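Notes, p. 3: input format for complexes.
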Amino acid sequence: MKVLIATEKPFAKVAVDGIRKEIEAAGYELVLLEKYTEKAQLLDAVKDVNAIIIRSDIVDKEVLDAAKELKIVVRAGAGYDNVDLAEATAHGVCVMNTPGQNSNAVAELAFGMMIMAVRNFYNGKAGTELMGKKLGIHAYGNVGRNVARIAKGIGMDIYAYDAFCPKEAIKADGVTPVDSADELYKNCDVVSLHIPATPETRKSINYDLVNLMPKNGLLVNTARKEVIDEEGLLKLMEERQDLKYVTDIMPEKNEEFAAKCAGRYFSTPKKMGAQTAEANINAGIAAAKQIVAYFKDGCEKFRVNKK
Ligand code: NAD
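Output follows (307 residues plus nicotinamide-adenine-dinucleotide):
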């Protein structure tokens, strides 16, 4: 078996070493295409490989057409909208992601931004503490669960809304499940967003929903920019000078937010949630392990496309 790492933005060396160890221990060959600048390089590299590990790299019809021996593509990370799933299915290729490997990194960043916001962005003025405050976790998936774990240590009163996760699973973590997003926003001093971008969630974080938040509400977004109705949120934040918004996904209207909500708004310059040495290594090694398990045992646990 021949496994290709195709990364426009390479993994850290330690991650590549870890991947190599997994792949070679299985008796497979590892080949590397890093920092490629032309799509032609990718099309050439995929020609004879059976598996590909990617990060944000685009795997579309053209790549799948060129990869005649390909059986599996693993996106080292959570999001996989860079892979054409329908085309992969049509080509008989299994697509997987590596969920959960960067969840702690994202959750820690959410708290980094949360503390920065309640301490007034370190502007020298007295802020507030998180202990005893009500935290609303909007979607109780991999990241949401890590946020709950950290919030417990801080001493927050934790609520969660998830459209699909059973309430019993939320309760089992000592978190109070609520019945709707409305209820969550109405109740919580801080809401941390962890919903995926789907047709239902697109622009769902809007004027009316965020306006339910109590005075001095703080919205923390480490999820996706597509879920925010930027126009609505901007209008609300201009009307309600008490609200704060911090995000790891720079809005289209970043400059407007920065100008109109000065002192109450922050965006990372680029998405940084999963950008830790640990997450980088974990996701790469998980991808390698999933490829080995797929070929050796037919394990498709993390498959994201239809057969
Ligand atoms: P996950 O798939 O583990 O969890 C998502 C949760 O959302 C699931 O529990 C699901 O039931 C729930 N959900 C889906 N639709 C919903 C809806 N309409 N209302 C309420 N809940 C809904 O995903 P995750 O790994 O926890 O990632 C969460 C978010 O974080 C995603 O948007 C992902 O893209 C983003 N993310 C960001 C970074 C970053 O660098 N900032 C890194 C990784 C993931």
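The longest helix spans residues 277-297.
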